[in-house]
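Module 6 notes. Inverse folding takes a fixed backbone as the condition and produces residue identities as the prediction. Think of it as a translation problem where the source language is geometry and the target language is the twenty amino acids. Below is one complete input and output pair. Work through it position by position during the lab.
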C-alpha cells in the first residue's frame, strides 16, 4: 500500500511541478504559486491528521532481515553508477531542467550534507503540518520556516527574488490544480508518515517501508511523464487533472480502509 501511496503522491507533485520543499523554495524566490501549493499541502495534511485521529494505521513496525533494508540504497547507488558511467543505452536530457545541474560529484557531496542534516533534525515538510494539527508541536514547522527564511535571504542577496505569479521558472498559475495536486501530497505524506524527503532519509536508515514508498515515487514519476500527467509552464493537462481527482479519491479510501478500532477514553 505504501508503494501505491507513493505513486499517488508523485502524481500530485508533478501536477504542481514540485514537492513541499520545492513549494517552499519557489515561494522564497518570489513565486507566489508556492502559496497555493503550501495551502494545498496544509489542507491535505489536515485531512490525513483526521484519519490518524480516527485510527488510521498502515501496520505495526516489525523487524525484518537486514538485507531488506539494503534494497533501496543499492537501487539508488545503481542509478548513481548509471549517471557516472553514462552508458549508450541510457538517454540523458540535452536541454531543459533535466540538463541543468551542478557537477555530479559536487551534487553528491552537497546531497550528503543535506541528507545528514535532514536525518539528524527529522526534517519533514508534511510532518510539520501533521504535528501542528495533532499535538500543537511546532518543532518541524519552525524548521520549515528556517528553510524558507534562509532561501529568501540568499535569493535577495543574489538578486534572484522575483515576486509574482506569472513567468516564474518551472511554474504555472493554474491555482485550483496547484492546490489539489499538493493536497494529494499532503494527504499521502501524512498517511505514509513523512514527505518524500523523509521517506528518502528513512530508506537510507534501512526502513523497508520507506523503500517501498521510494519505489512508488519513481514508478509514479515514470507513469506521469509517459502518460501526460505532468504539468508544464503552459499549465496542467487533462490527464493530470483526472489523475489528481483519482489520487485524492484513492488516498481517502486508503485512509478510511486502514483504520484500527479506537477505544473511547475512560473517565
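Target side of the pair, the amino acids:
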Amino acid at each position: 500500500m505504501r508503494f501505491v501511496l507513493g505513486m499517488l503522491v508523485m502524481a500530485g507533485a508533478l501536477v504542481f511541478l514540485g514537492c513541499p520543499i520545492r513549494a517552499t523554495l519557489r515561494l522564497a524566490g518570489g513565486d507566489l504559486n508556492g502559496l497555493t501549493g503550501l495551502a494545498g499541502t496544509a489542507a491535505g495534511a489536515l485531512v490525513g491528521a483526521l484519519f490518524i485521529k480516527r485510527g488510521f494505521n498502515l501496520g505495526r513496525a516489525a523487524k525484518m532481515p537486514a538485507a531488506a533494508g539494503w534494497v533501496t540504497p543499492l537501487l539508488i547507488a545503481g542509478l548513481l553508477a548509471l549517471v557516472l558511467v553514462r552508458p549508450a543505452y541510457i538517454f540523458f536530457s540535452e536541454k531543459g531542467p533535466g540538463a541543468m545541474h551542478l557537477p555530479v560529484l559536487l551534487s553528491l557531496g552537497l546531497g550528503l550534507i543535506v541528507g545528514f542534516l535532514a536525518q539528524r533534525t527529522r526534517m519533514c515538510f508534511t510532518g510539520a503540518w501533521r504535528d501542528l494539527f495533532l499535538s500543537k508541536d511546532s518543532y518541524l514547522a519552525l524548521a520549515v520556516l528556517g528553510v524558507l527564511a534562509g532561501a529568501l535571504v540568499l535569493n535577495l542577496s543574489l538578486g534572484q527574488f522575483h515576486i509574482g505569479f506569472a513567468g516564474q521558472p518551472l511554474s504555472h498559475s493554474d491555482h485550483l490544480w496547484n492546490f489539489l495536486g499538493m493536497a494529494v501530497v499532503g494527504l499521502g505524506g501524512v498517511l505514509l508518515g513523512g514527505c518524500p524527503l523523509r521517506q528518502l532519509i528513512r530508506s537510507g536508515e534501512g526502513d523497508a517501508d520507506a523503500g517501498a514508498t521510494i519505489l512508488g515515487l519513481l514508478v509514479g514519476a515514470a507513469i506521469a511523464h509517459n502518460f501526460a500527467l505532468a504539468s508544464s509552464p503552459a499549465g496542467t493537462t487533462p490527464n493530470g487533472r483526472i489523475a489528481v481527482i483519482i489520487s485524492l479519491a484513492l488516498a481517502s479510501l486508503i485512509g478510511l480502509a486502514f483504520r484500527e478500532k479506537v477505544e473511547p477514553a475512560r473517565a
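Reference fact for the lab report: Residues 2-58+69-86+95-257 form one domain.
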